[in-house]
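Intended use. Records like the one below are meant for learning the mapping from a protein sequence to its folded structure. Do not use them to infer anything beyond what is encoded.
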Amino acid sequence: MKRAPAFVELWPVASRRSSWGRACCVASWALIAAIWVAGCAANSMQTERSGTGGATGIGGQGPGTGDGGDWCRARGVFQDNCVECHGTRPLYGAPMSLVTFDDLHARSVTNPSKYVYEMIAQRIHDDQKPMPPPSTNDRLTSSEAGIVDAWIGAGAPASSDPSCSFTSGAGGATGAAGSADSTGSSGTTGSGGAGLGGAGGAGGSMPPVGAWPADCQQRYKLLAHGKSQPGDTTKFNVSGAPTKQFYQCFFFKVPYATDVVQALQFSPIIDDARVVHHWILYGSDTSNGTDGQVGGLGCSNGAFIAGWAPGGKPTNLPPDVGLQMPKGAGATLALEIHYNNLASYTDALDASGVEFCTTKTFRPNTAAVHWLGSQSILVLPHSTKDVVGT
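Structure written out for the chain above:
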């Protein structure tokens, strides 16, 4: 997916662009999470409507010398870093589980000539396509990578108990819980082969779930659907698509008619989490498609408005800022969803999307997102490339 760089512009409603720098510094953080769309993250599928809680602390490792063996130590690394997406029920396009010994010794979905553990040996050291992805801020530490490398280097053997259910060795202590809006402490190191380390401390307390800004006047939902017609409520058939990984666009006439509004909050709605990798919401003052249209070109021709990826939370604007929304008789919103069905599910039906709220009573400052540069700019991490274009 090629995208031109984006930036956030804010200005006071009364004087437009005066005090631009002050407003940008005050409020730009509220949109950054919506602009940079990421991969799987440890705190995925959060549903809180306001505020931000602390992240769960990192579990300590328990290398020990008990009977657990290299497999149980490696399993501890996978549990700490991978199973949110690669769990018993893989989510967000992950094609396989990384939970049991048999999972690691299955053939790779993306490269059947290799076993899953062989692919892991490559991906944890791949700086351009790493796992866990850099967007999660959860790349394996050198100690964690060493544990996995040692197990794979030995031939990825089982332990005396592949389920690691034995009780020898003590787990580390649980880290201290964080205070409100803060991060919990790391767990301490376990002892013995079974000591996979203490659980991380709980994150800080969250504000109540379900709270929308008090000045919201209207709320709207835009959802994926199966038929190209306004108001359709059938689900989009992901399994019926000709490819397993693709971008699907859904067009909507703006639901607030010709009113001029600010948006105050965007909350993700994730239906079939097995196959939804991320989505982006675009907006345009001119029509790029008909109301309810499924598919077609021009989805990303508008301005970037909001986005979601695993780990994403509702996007709340600061209390004195509202987001500029498309306006006029031809105004259109386009929801682009990246579907990933590498696991070949045959029953994947989806109605994911976004709920957002608006106001006609403007807050003091208005934010807007603009594209800059060429859409040909695509430079992979840890690489260099000359791009020529306008």
